[in-house]
Amino acid sequence: MITQPQAMATPTPDPDEERRRIQTARLLAYRDDGPLVHALSGKLGKGLPPVPATLVALLAVIAVTVVGLPDKGPLLLLPVAITLLLVLPTAPRDHLSRFDWLTPPLLRGTEFLAMIAIGLAAGAPKWLLFVLVYVVGYHTYDTVYRTRQSIWPPAWVFHAGLGWELRLLLIGAGAALGWLTPVLAVLTAYLFVLFAVESVTSWVRLDKASAQAGADAEQDLEASPEDALEQATGEAEKG
């Protein structure tokens, strides 16, 4: 006797495993790692615990800022080197420990402090530093707001945004070479256009999709019972 093949039951995902997966994805998105971190993370072994390493990096950058940086020369790269050496090895971790949610704010604070310390020491325009911090901060806020609604930014925007590591490297190198102001100007303009255009187009696309879904649902509700029966009968005859 020939029987109909039984459809394979879709396995129900483990709720705890799904929660851990989403938590990891969110925290990694909040870190805003760039192409350099992604290229090296697979070669760093198990990596360092994220919170202690990032906290030490922040405290070290604070100490360097308090002591003071020169107005030119390779020593302006010191906050960048500290951040890279301590934070980059944390990338391979799954960020599932109890306090790992502290990693993104600690990392963002370290990045902003390093930017400001290098910029002020090298005599960069303060308003330009403020705009750069604002642009990166907006990108972080946009990422957090989207992911909390299960709307994930595309992966390419994190690579195109250079990540915290390449942003700091560009700023540090520009300061050490005496080109910080033009580097800041170009970097700020580039990131502003990138993050603003990507964010606006994504939200507009989502709004259009939501409006279309609402219109379709409203049309279905407004359909008369006779129309619904006729449509169902027609579909059955076609089948």
TrEMBL record:
Annotated InterPro entries: DUF5941
Transmembrane segments: 51-69, 75-91, 112-136, 168-197
Annotated stretches, region: Disordered: 216-239
Alphabetical list of Pfam families matching this protein: DUF5941
Keyword Membrane belongs to the record: yes
Limits of the DUF5941 domain: 26-209
Stated name of the protein: DUF5941 domain-containing protein
Organism of provenance: Nonomuraea spiralis
